Amino acid sequence: MTPPPDLAERLMSAVQGIRRVVRRRVRAEVPGPPLPGAQVELLRVVDRLPGVGVAAAARELSLAGNSVSTLVNLLVEAGLLRREVDPADRRAAQLQVTEAARERMATWRKARTGLVSAALTRLSEEDTVSITAALPALEKLMDALKEEA
After folding, report:
1. Given 7, 38, 40, 97, which is the most exposed site by the fewest CB atoms within 10 A?
2. Burial (CB count within 10 angstroms: exposed 0-12, middle 13-18, buried 19+), residue 72
3. How much is the average pLDDT of 6-34?
4. What is d(CA 29, CA 35) in angstroms, rounded to the nearest whole number?
5. pLDDT tens across 32-76, in order?
6. Backbone angles phi, psi at 94, to 5 degrees
7. 89-125, pLDDT tens digit by residue?
8. Alpha-carbon Rg of the chain, whole angstroms?
9. What single DSSP character describes residue 6?
10. Which neighbouring-strand residues pair with 96?
């Protein structure tokens, strides 16, 4: 089936709009200086994959290794990320989130989930069912896009 010609644009516009509004509103609730999206994404990767190396994190984020190295340096300086020597290869580093990062991420996650949950309650049951039904397809779309990277 060929998708409608404007589907991709409408989808991206909606997703970006939701992310932008949520990010702006949550930043006001989370203490500390706001973190750029790329830093937040790297923290999420390291939290999900403790001990990940810079190269693997770069692959996971579809970013250049030197870009991730820069992000790592900024997050280490901010006290949100820790580098540890890889026991299997003393030249390599393993990345770990700090307790401060864990607390900040939990606060951010709680604020984000609360904000979106509250907005979902203001939608009709039909809209909520439609969004729920669309999630598996959106997750498959995300996987398909990752495969192309």
Report:
1. 7
2. buried
3. 89
4. 13
5. 888 888 999 999 999 999 999 999 999 999 899 899 999 999 999
6. -105, 140
7. 888 889 999 999 999 999 999 999 999 999 999 999 9
8. 18
9. T
10. 82
Instruction: Give buried/exposed letters for 42-67 (b at 16+ CB in 10 A, else e).
Output: bbbbbeeeeebbbebbbebbebeeee
- pTM to 2 decimals? 0.76
pLDDT score of 30: 81
- What are 15's two structure tokens? 């997703």
Strands 81-86 and 89-97: antiparallel
The closest alpha carbon to 11, from 146, 145, 147, 149, belongs to 145
